[in-house]
Amino acid sequence: MAAPLAAHQTETPDDSEQRAKAGTKIVLLGTGGGPRLRVDRAQPANLLVVEGTPYLIDCGEGCVTQLRKSGHDPAALGAVFLTHLHLDHSAGTASLGAFRWTLGAQDVLSVFGPPGTAKFLDAGMEYLSLPGSVHATEVRGMGSMKNVIRAQDLSVDSKGAVEIYRDGRVRVQAVNNSHFYHLAKVDAGFGAIRSYSYRIDTSDRSVVFTGDTGPSKALERLAKNTDVLVTEVMDVDGIMAQFEERGGFTAAQLLMIEKQMRAKHLTPEEVAKLATAANVKTVLLTHFTTPDGDKAAVAQITARVRAGFDGEVIAGEDLQAF
Fold first, then answer.
1. Could you please report the per-residue DSSP string of 45-71?
2. Which of 15, 112, 129, 200 sees the fewest Cβ atoms within 10 Å?
3. How far apart are CA 195 and CA 185, in angstroms?
4. Rg (the chain; Cα; Å)
């Protein structure tokens, strides 16, 4: 599909030079995995700050607060890219739109994501419109809350990367990964259920955000020779131990749960295989899906990735910048 082109603003030579000096920075807003609410890690969200402009990849619950904690203004975002519509990756999107409005944003923030994204955001903004109308009654001249954010569904198949966005700072490509392999033929009323991985190229850096995915050849090709792979990782053994401890599952049910986890997510060994095959320079681990409160599991996961990958491996924490 043709890339949506952002409006270009006139710059002076000094502006252009200042932007170039700013370069590209990755900020981890939320590094927790799964729909659980944790006190040590916020839900998934990442920033790519390019020449001073922040782009958001995923928007879990509490994302607006994490943006402010990181020193970034929700009203200044360049665009949002949702990898998929699981709650932990998307539940903060409508709140982001609403609080951009209360902060006085005038421009329209574009949100890109898989089929269903536009319907999801429309419903979310409608949900917040009643308290929004109270605010608008108290503060005159606010305009419509719904006019500061809009969503576009992306149709990306599994055959290869598709350029889905380009402006003067970034080029964004997407692939359909394997997270929803088991739902490939299901239509939930808004189109195919998809999960995307994104590659963002800037003037000085290339970064891939895996989102949630299992092993995927399409993702491997997308990540080829990139500088940084920002990837989910799952401690399947630790999570399965929790299921067994909880009880109430038959042996057959436990086997099926484990099989799906290994197909839908990346174990440390699969992260290492992906990074090695794609020849990436640095692996940045996030979206840690581990037993609750098990800090040792993060260290063990990181060691297991390092055992299979010769490049740099970093265990991310909320609000770290790279």
1. EEEEEETTEEEEEEE-TTHHHHHHHTT
2. 15
3. 14
4. 20
Q: What is the pLDDT of residues 9-57, one digit of tens each?
A: 333 444 545 544 579 999 999 999 988 888 899 999 999 999 999 999 9
Measure CA 235 to chain center. Answer: 19
The domain defined by 13-315 carries CATH number 3.90.1150.10: no
Q: How far is CA 218 from CA 19, 162, 222, 277, in A?
A: 32, 11, 6, 12
Whole-number Cα distances in Å, 118 to 272, 285, 289: 35, 29, 28
Query: How far apart are alpha carbons 207 and 121 in whole angstroms?
Result: 26
Alpha-carbon distance of 152 to 297, in angstroms, equals 38
- Residue 58 main-chain phi, psi, to 5 deg: 75, 155
Sign, Cα dihedral of 41, 28, 208, 165: positive
Tokens linked to 251:
């042996």
Q: Convert the pLDDT of each residue in 171-218 to its tens digit.
A: 999 999 999 999 988 888 899 999 999 999 999 999 999 999 999 999
At 311, list the tokens. 């490049």
